[in-house]
Design a protein that fits this description.
This protein is α+β, with helices and mostly antiparallel strands. 29% of the residues lie in helices and 40% in strands. Strands 1, 7, 8, 9 and 10 form a five-stranded antiparallel β-sheet that branches. It has a five-stranded antiparallel β-sheet with strand order 2-3-6-4-5, sandwiched between helices. α2 crosses α3 (101-119). The protein is elongated and about 70 Å long.
Length: 199
């Protein structure tokens, strides 16, 4: 699965109308809606702020006052054709006084998204099972050795009363099996599933 590494913004002008395309990596609808809310505030003087998103828990689009099917739908179609996921796009339009017609709007919003996609850094993502390892400080070397020897990836560490590692397996093996022999020393819990950059 493909997504983008970081936010990007691009701008095009068509028949005196200004189209500003803002692209953000997002994981879920909540993140998408928050970004859309912030961009609506930032560009509250714009004629339209049209949106499209494809995230882990769904997808959606909005024409924001443009004729139905001329903005949000072409935008999400560009995302689908480019097989992009975990992404939110907002195209802000400042009307320049010349009407583009339905076909012209579809082309303008599609082009705006395509131009922005040319600027983004695309990365492969994959869904991984994240496991939490909890153990004593005296076992850090042992755990580090097992993580290294089994090609696990440590994505988060926490040092408090005990040590906590969040780890994933490159081939999505059940990490509990690796640490079964240390059942008295190392606690292994399945934490969640996450889409992460492919390792």
């Amino acid at each position: 699965m493909k997504t983008i590494k970081k936010p990007v913004q691009s701008e095009i002008n068509i028949k005196k109308s200004q189209f500003i395309c803002s692209v953000y990596p997002t994981k879920n609808k909540k993140e998408s809606k928050e970004i859309i809310r912030k961009l609506n505030q930032k560009y509250n003087d714009a004629t339209h702020n049209c949106t499209a998103y494809i995230v882990e828990d769904g997808e959606g689009f909005d024409d924001d006052g443009e004729p139905g099917g001329t903005a949000g739908k072409p935008m999400i179609n560009v995302l689908r054709k480019n097989e992009l996921h975990n992404i939110t796009i907002i195209v802000t339009r400042y009307f320049g006084g010349i009407k583009l017609g339905a076909g012209g709007l579809v082309r303008a919003y599609s082009k705006s998204v395509l131009e922005a996609i040319k600027e983004v850094e695309i990365v492969e993502i994959e869904q991984y099972d994240v496991y939490e390892l909890i153990f004593e400080y005296s076992d850090i070397k042992l755990v580090d050795m097992e993580v290294r020897n089994n090609s696990l990836e440590n994505i988060d560490k926490d040092y408090s009363d005990t040590v906590r590692y969040d780890v994933i397996s490159k081939d999505n093996r059940d990490i509990r099996k690796i640490f079964e022999k240390y059942s008295g020393k190392i606690r292994v819990d399945f934490k969640n599933k996450q889409f992460l950059e492919k390792i």
